[in-house]
């Protein structure tokens, strides 16, 4: 089961930092503003291994010229409808809450957040701190960023990774010019050891060791201001411990990462295409497609390592936002993820499929 959202490359639209942080140099020229927003959203996700995940979230945010605050509460429901590849069926619920704030001081950006995921205690505490500074030049704006934090292990916390946490750090350099935006970054993630009895039929896997996953990634994307943009992305990932662990007694072409996705080594290069309407209209629509061009992944079973070509995922996502009142908007989102077993062919046995759909309502007050 593919349990982590770390298998794909982040580009704008997935990560807002290049666009947010580059606004540091222009924020002081904007008219004074101070507004609050309340929002509610729901998201449902499913995969081809009979895992289902739902999320409901409510949040409040206050935005001023140089600072802002936010509060969020969220509830999750997870269910693995039937045993899969040695993983036992599961059904459960989990809550989360978080508060945060940011400050713009000249060309510096500070942001922090703290909360919990699961139980409101120290073990389940999560948090994040971001420090960035913009450097305007004649060729564009360069923004180095440091991002550290602790959070849930997997983006989609499937039963294998429920209750597990990781410590993360990222150093990045973003660049924004008149018609281009790009970023290069180094990311390290330390999985915390955990005990997870009863999640798989193999009791020897109840003790989950710590792990270190490192990645280098980058992208460049056009910012034409028109209906179409395109770009290139690349990523390389390697882990201290392999997670291609057999959770059943016989081999099969299925993703049974335990507790989440961390191959010994993988790399990929992708092409990104994006279409959008103008964001200042009452109805705005955007869609993005990420197509793997070249990729290779090493997998290991016991002492045998095998490398496969064509393993990077095909990804698509879309968004429609309708501002039907001056201070009210509704947003619909959707995504699709298809990771082939090999040879770029998502129709073969072993392909991992995942999809999600979300609906949100936003009200300015």
Task: Show unreliable segments.
Answer: 1-30
The SSE order reads: HHEEEEEEEEEEEEEEEEEEEE
Task: Describe the global form.
Answer: globular
The rounded distance between the terminal residues' Cα atoms is 43 Å
What radius of gyration results from the CA coordinates? 21 Å
Largest sheet, strands/sense/barrel: 16 strands, antiparallel, barrel
Q: How many beta-strand segments?
A: 20
The percent range for strand residues is over 45%
Helix content: under 10%
Element layout with pairings:
Layout: H1 17-21, H2 24-27, E1 35-47, E2 51-63, E3 67-80, E4 90-105, E5 108-118, E6 125-133, E7 135-137, E8 140-152, E9 165-176, E10 180-191, E11 194-195, E12 207-208, E13 211-222, E14 228-239, E15 265-276, E16 283-301, E17 304-309, E18 314-325, E19 328-339, E20 352-364
Main attributes?
16-stranded antiparallel beta barrel, 365 residues, 60% strand, 2% helix
Task: Write a compact overview of the structure shown.
The protein has two helices and 20 strands.
Can you give a write-up of this model?
The chain has helices at 17-21, 24-27, and strands at 35-47, 51-63, 67-80, 90-105, 108-118, 125-133, 135-137, 140-152, 165-176, 180-191, 194-195, 207-208, 211-222, 228-239, 265-276, 283-301, 304-309, 314-325, 328-339, 352-364. Residues 1-30 have low confidence and may be disordered. A hairpin with a 5-residue loop joins strand 13 (211-222) and strand 14. The chain has two helices and 20 strands. The chain has 365 residues and is mostly beta strands. The protein has one domain (5-35, 123-364). The strands form two sheets. A 16-stranded antiparallel β-barrel has the order 1-2-3-4-5-6-8-9-10-13-14-15-16-18-19-20.
